């Protein structure tokens, strides 16, 4: 074998080793810090939640699940427009209350989540509560075990009625006045 061929093989092997090292570093970074969560654009949230149709209504869309029915009893308006707090009803932080502002609320195991839930069934970035057109919506962030609204799995951003049970991991919570 010529020296040039040997040099090219050595450089190729060295390059392959560096690619392997970077792949390991990338995998470790993803495991430690999680994947980036993409922000939902306002038009996409409205179309996904079944709100007012947009100009792109003729484009093919994925299946949209129906919002969970409002709980019965209690009278009055059962929409989340009047919600002022989020109350954890069961789980490790049972009884904790969080005031609702205008910002979105992220839920998960990550330390950068607004509500940190540390259990084996909650993903790093599990779900997001967001105010959309005056109503609170729940969005699952591709969690492993899913997010449930009144027992139904949430696949698209879905409005949360007052008093409806939202389950994230082993924790349940409700929106209240």
UniProtKB/TrEMBL annotation:
Pfam families xref list: Yop-YscD_cpl (PF16697)
PANTHER family: NUCLEAR INHIBITOR OF PROTEIN PHOSPHATASE-1
Residue span of region Disordered: 58-81
Domain (FHA): residue spans on this chain: 105-154
Protein's UniProt name: FHA domain-containing protein
Key words, A-Z: Phosphoprotein
Biased composition, class Low complexity, residue ranges: 58-67
SMART domains: FHA
């Amino acid at each position: 074998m010529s020296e040039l061929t040997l040099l090219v093989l050595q450089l190729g092997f060295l390059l392959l080793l560096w690619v392997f090292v970077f792949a390991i570093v990338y995998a470790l970074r993803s495991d430690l810090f999680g994947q980036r969560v993409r922000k939902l654009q306002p038009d996409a949230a409205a179309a996904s939640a079944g709100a007012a149709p947009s100009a792109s209504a003729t484009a093919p869309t994925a299946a949209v699940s129906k919002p969970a029915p409002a709980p019965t009893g209690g009278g009055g308006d059962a929409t989340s427009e009047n919600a002022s707090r989020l109350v954890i009803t069961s789980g490790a932080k049972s009884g904790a209350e969080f005031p609702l502002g205008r910002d979105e609320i992220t839920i998960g195991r990550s330390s950068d989540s607004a509500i940190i839930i540390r259990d084996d069934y909650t993903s790093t970035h599990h779900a997001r509560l967001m105010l959309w057109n005056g109503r609170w919506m729940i969005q699952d962030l591709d969690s492993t075990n899913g997010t449930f609204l009144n027992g139904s799995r949430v696949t698209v951003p879905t409005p949360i009625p007052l008093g409806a049970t939202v389950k994230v991991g082993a924790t349940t919570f409700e929106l209240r006045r």
